[in-house]
Amino acid sequence: MQTTVRGALVKGIPFFTIGCFQVPALGKARGEVPGAIGGAYFRMFPTSVPAPLGTTVEASWASVASSPPARYDWGVTDSTRVIENLIYRYAELIDAGDFAGVARLFAHGCIKPGADSKAEAEVRGEAAVFEMYRASTRLYGDGTPRTRHLTTNAIIEVESGADRASARTSYTVLQQTDILPLQPIISGRYHDTFQIIEGDWWFKERIMLIDLVGNLKEHLLYELP
After folding, report:
1. For the chain, which residues make up each domain, given as ranges?
2. What is 78-213's CATH topology?
3. What is the pTM of this model?
4. 203 within 8 A of 192, measured Cβ to Cβ
5. Using CA atoms, how far apart are residues 102 and 106, in angstroms rounded to an integer?
6. CB 89 within 8 A of CB 41
7. Residue 25 has what DSSP assignment?
8. What is the spatial distance between Cα 129 and Cα 136, in angstroms, rounded to a whole number?
9. In the chain, count of helices (H) and strands (E)?
């Protein structure tokens, strides 16, 4: 079923009115604007490109099934969200000083200090990752490293119909101790790959790239080369 609906830009976001519903368009791809009402997904095909705030646009509404069509890339999938949570879970655990929790994330994976790092520099498996953090990260009286890992600019790519995915993110670590005023101490990038094992997404490999370095004396138990 198709019908014509009208909408307008509100703070730069296209809103379409269907019956008594006013629905924000979630994005555009191949000229389509997806959305959902009560679990039923629809696609908008704008007949013109919206311009300034308040511009009225027309679109053709095509009702589809109760799930997003397979041929359409909605930009956010269940797998994407799970992978994003894994990335953020790492930051949450390391800031809590939970090295065992961090290590469990890499039960089926490894951490590398660089894309071209030698095999002996690779830290693989839960036990090895736990020992790496235990031996390298300074903890304080509250059991934490007194840090805040900020992970941003996530670009997650899930291979269609496959059990593999990759992600690129930026990280910045803040720290404050009794000696060190609140400040950024290091910033860089994570290049991650993921795999599905028995139905669940796991880290396969994390490459840690360092771009900017500040005062790490209150954070690490060793000095970076």
Report:
1. 2-63, 78-213
2. Nuclear Transport Factor 2; Chain: A, (3.10.450)
3. 0.66
4. yes
5. 7
6. no
7. -
8. 11
9. 3, 12
The single-letter code of the amino acid at 147 is T
What tokens were used for 131?
A: 């020992």
Q: Which amino acid is at 60?
A: S
Tokens of 109: 């994976």
Output 52-58 pairs: Cβ under 8 A, ≥24 positions apart.
52/9, 53/9, 53/10, 53/11, 53/12, 54/8, 54/9, 55/8, 55/9, 56/6, 56/7, 56/8, 57/6, 57/7, 57/8, 57/9, 57/14, 58/4, 58/5, 58/6
**110/203 Cα distance (integer angstroms):** 8
Rounded distance between C-alpha atoms, residue 139 and residue 146, angstroms: 8
Write out the chain's pLDDT in tens, 225 residues: 334 444 444 444 444 444 444 444 443 333 334 444 344 333 444 444 433 334 344 444 333 333 433 333 334 458 999 999 999 999 999 999 999 999 999 999 999 998 888 888 999 999 999 999 999 999 999 999 999 999 999 999 998 777 999 999 999 999 999 999 999 999 999 999 999 999 899 999 999 999 999 999 999 999 887
